[in-house]
Amino acid sequence: xxxxxxxxxxSKKNEPMTIHIYNTLTHKKEPLTSTPDRxxxxxxxxxxxxxxxHIGHARSALVFDMMFxxxxxxxxxxxxxxxxxxxxxxxxxxxxxxxxxCEELSERFxxxxxxxxxxxxxxxxxxxxxxxxxVAEIIAMIRELMDKGLAYQAGNDVFYAVDRFKSYGRxxxxxxxxxxxxxxxxxxxxxxxPLDFVLWKGSKPGEPFxxxxxxxxxxxxxxxxxxxxxxxxxxxxxxxxxxxxxxxxHHENEIAQSEGxxxxxxxxxxxxxxxxxxxxxxxxxxxGNFLTIRDVLSRYHPEALRLFVFSTHYRNPLDYSEEAxxxxxxxxxxxxxxxxxxxxxxxxxxxxxxxxxxxxxxxKIETLPLQFKAxxxxxxNTARALGHIFDAVKVLNRIRQALSSPPAxxxxxxxxxxxxxxxxVSGIMGLLxxxxxxxxxxxxxxxxQNIILTSEEIEGLIRERNAxxxxxxxxxxxxxxKELQSKNIEIKDGPDGTFWKVKTI
Length: 505
Hints:
alpha/beta
């Protein structure tokens, strides 16, 4: 089980549960219930390791990373399992195309997956089981299903008999008879029913295989998650997650396998995130709009991608565009800039100047954790939670800009507290993990690689502009600003001087 690496929320661990999660199975939000010692068991379907991960994979990883972090923050002990599919038809085909083994191919792309996840700051789950390392458990489960009359052998294959599980289709809302009537699946001559799905696939020449009671072969896709979740989380557990594309047939088939065998509720809460589209079109290599995580991170800060993902509720479609990423970049800059400026002000000696903050503003800052919690407890509504964070940032910026000279102790303490709270709750979404000064320094260094001017030249032009302003030579001052803007350099005047940044979009 994973204990929290984050600051645990100050609420008592035995307080009534308040987190409500939308359950795909029941189509309504339901309370997350756990054991008295607040244990939560979470299983998420991971990648099939045959290619680099795309931004759809990024959304999945970030969504469940956010949920994991929030549960830890709220004081839960979380057993988080995310699997790897390291043997299937796609892996076999790609390995043959590349003249390599399935093991080498899957190991290579699992390593690439970890590189992507580490760049995104995704926390590692408690366990990450692989299908090929659990063949014994898979074979044992298939034998139990056969003994119970839910599966049958046909040649060297073993199939699950769908019509023997009476509630098949409950998760996806599909009717078994309608599916049979409309089935366009090429009927396997060995199948009893065209909707029956494979549990064990007899091997073809040249394919990797494991010995089994039904001959050499390999596991089907659906059985691996049932077998591995059962081994590590038991017959029943709290949350099972994945993308909407997994509702049918993958998760539907998991329910049939697991509940058909144990006659127990397999999962309490089924959680599915929405699709990622590009300009409202489904991402596809054939359409030329396929973006890997590496493509995106070559242009954007990982936290900009996080901010983009969490600006939309996880169940809604997420449309990727340059404009949307530009908004995310600008938003991330605002958050870091607020921390940077608040840090400068907080270093000011305390005094008894005029108080500029209002009681409403103080309440807005002090209640940020409660507002954040209310949003997150409502089915992990990160879009609303981010709205509260940005509202708090607006308040902090207004107070800072209106500070008296000398500033009041009450205002300085509020700025410091507000910055601390913004940092704390943003961390639940993996945001603001860097020192603000280092964030802007690295941003400038990266962006300046494509800018003709050096930092020294930019700062020299800013000094010249400020001197022109002092002499009321507004024409020259404006000309320098426009010159800098033409080179994607933005400048901002403040009480502590003039600051500059490079536009990254």
